UniProtKB/TrEMBL annotation:
CDD domains from the UniProt entry: nitrilase
GO MF assignments: hydrolase activity, acting on carbon-nitrogen (but not peptide) bonds, in linear amides
InterPro entries in UniProt: Aliph_Amidase/BUP, C-N_Hydrolase, C-N_Hydrolase_sf
Span of the signal peptide: none
Keywords, comma-separated and alphabetical: Hydrolase
Residues forming coiled coils: none
Domain CN hydrolase: 6-283
Native source organism of the sequence: Gordonia jinghuaiqii
Name the UniProt record assigns to this protein: Carbon-nitrogen hydrolase family protein
Length: 316
């Protein structure tokens, strides 16, 4: 029987500026380098296929712009892009040329003017892949569900001011593989991972721009989520210092690939932009882990329903 694999390149990039056109050119160059074997290979136990493009390149959250959600003082809505738009056109052309899929975080504006913190998936033919919700709906991007409004290591973050939340967890199909997604803060909510698994996800993308004290538990949290959902986790985080609105914030990187039993297969250095991980993941390992530790069988549906009922009551 032929092994089911997915060859993945994770591009850890940051240090973006207010020159949006230049940012996009940098992203295109970084993806092209990853697709043609450039960049560093911090690949851990399972390196990518030498001499060929990866099946999928993954980029961090909101990576077509600097991370701008630390201020209300400047209107950044002109940075938002439609889907399709300039970013999907440029990266779609590259995906088609290099015959590799690309997932990237972007500032999305819908036809009615609503803005979202989103992840777009483009297939190897350069086409935008639909994300399907549990109710049968579809979207051109995964849209972040939980929007933080908090202080992290002295940095004020308010995404509720800039974005509308997405409707629900969602999954997409790529190379016959069901893929789920979380964006940054979403990773902290186990129920989002559980729904994606229930929808058939074998791989979860964690697309991140994270900073400060969240570094201390970043890898451990993703290892735990991988073990709970028994999915492969492919995490791309922004890295390095970035100056906007007169303030400099240092994003901690640590992009990684984690197996469905929680093993860290590959990790990038902390706080360093311009790193690429190249890993071939074994999708058969998902079934093996689930058979050895049947968490889905032993999950108490009545307790899950009780939690939902109690949470609904509290929210009222």
């Amino acid at each position: 029987m032929t092994a089911r694999t997915l060859d993945v390149a994770v591009v850890q990039i940051g240090e973006l500026t207010e020159d949006i056109a230049d940012n996009l050119s940098r992203l295109v160059a970084a993806v092209d380098s990853a697709a043609t074997g450039g960049g560093s290979e911090s690949g851990g136990a399972e390196g990518g296929r030498a001499g060929s493009a990866p099946d999928l390149v993954v980029l961090p959250e909101l990576i077509t712009t600097p991370y701008f959600c630390t201020s209300h003082d400047t209107d950044r809505t002109s940075w938002a892009q439609t889907i399709p738009g300039d970013a999907t056109a440029r990266l779609g052309a590259l995906a088609r040329e290099r015959r590799c899929a690309i997932a990237f975080g972007t500032y999305e504006r819908t036809a009615d003017g609503t803005t979202h913190n989103s992840v777009v998936l483009i297939d190897s033919a350069g086409e935008i892949v639909d994300w399907r919700t549990p109710g049968g709906g579809h979207m051109p991007a995964y849209r972040k569900l939980s929007l933080p409004a908090s202080k992290v290591s002295g940095v004020d973050i308010d995404e509720k001011y800039h974005f509308a939340p997405g409707p629900s967890p969602a999954t997409a199909e790529l190379h016959g593989i069901r893929i789920g997604c979380v964006i940054c803060y979403d990773r902290t909510f186990p129920e989002y991972w559980a729904v994606a698994r229930a929808l058939g996800a074998e791989v979860m993308l964690a697309v991140v721009s994270s900073l400060g004290s969240r570094e201390d538990l970043f890898l451990a949290e993703l290892q735990t989520r991988a073990l709970e959902s028994q999915t492969w986790v492919i995490a791309a985080n922004r890295a390095g210092p970035e100056t906007l609105n007169g303030a400099t914030v240092d994003y901690f990187g640590l992009s990684c690939v984690i197996a469905p039993d929680g093993e860290i297969v590959a990790r990038a250095p902390a706080h360093r932009s311009g790193e690429t991980l190249r890993v071939t993941i074994d999708l058969d390992r998902v079934a093996q882990v689930r058979a050895a530790l049947p968490l889905r069988r032993d999950r108490r549906a009545d307790v899950v329903s009780l939690f939902a009922d109690l949470t609904a009551g509290i929210c009222r």
